[in-house]
Amino acid sequence: MGRVVTTRAPVAFITGASRGIGKAIAVHMARAGFDVAIAARTIHDGEAREHSSTVRASDMSPLPGSLSSTATLVETTGRQATAVYLDLNDRASLAAAVSKVLDIYGRIDVLVNNARYVGPGHMDRILDTPIELLDKHLEANAVAPVILTQLVLPGMLARGNGCLITLTSKAGIVNPPAPAGEGGWSLGYAASKAAVIRLAGIIDVEHRKDGIRAFNLNPGVINTERIAIDMGAFGFEPTGASPDVIGAAAAWLATSPDADQYLGQWVEGQDLCRDLHLLDEANP
Predict the structure, then answer these.
(1) What domains sit in the chain, N to C, each tagged with a CATH number?
(2) What is the pTM of this model?
């Protein structure tokens, strides 16, 4: 079974936490008092992963960030960090990751579905996108969050409380401003995000009475490492907000009783952070 952590702290499980928004959410959850389980494919800095957004090219160059580096940031807050491998397109890895976290901590109090499919088809147009890449988008962005929810929800129900936060995107509800590759996005991304948007509302209708809190959190345009490195060629510039904005918003949703006004709803993360002054000099 490996190491077992004896802690009274609540536990947050965050996917896609090797960099970007997921890394920021992990740090802010730790600052809010959570032990943090962080999940992604990149365990150590320098690992090669396919991150080209188009079928026209391959890019295996390492991106900045890893679960190891995120764990170090979490541990500087005084909280525990556990890194687990997770691939959204590998269902066995989802079950294995949750099982490992439960073996170590015995509970998962908050699930943040942040990770998404990264790879070809993200910035390709309909006629250029093989159907199997649409399958990967739907599996990773819509089906995997449901699987993870089904894995953690029974424990939450048994305890009578739990929180599930799904990172959404306006790509799921509005038309792109331009074709994919010219400042717009692909059908695979839009369709998969449109599908997962329904998750929080369904959870709320079925389980609010059981103490389960579910939210859709929309980050808007965020200046992540991948935006800065990869997306300029497709019409996206690193002019968005800091990932810390969404980290602070996610931690507030998970911990504040005032967040109950948003149960089952779509929350604009940047607006929430600004209106509530969640980031200040004492909490950068």
Answers:
(1) 11-276 (3.40.50.720)
(2) 0.94
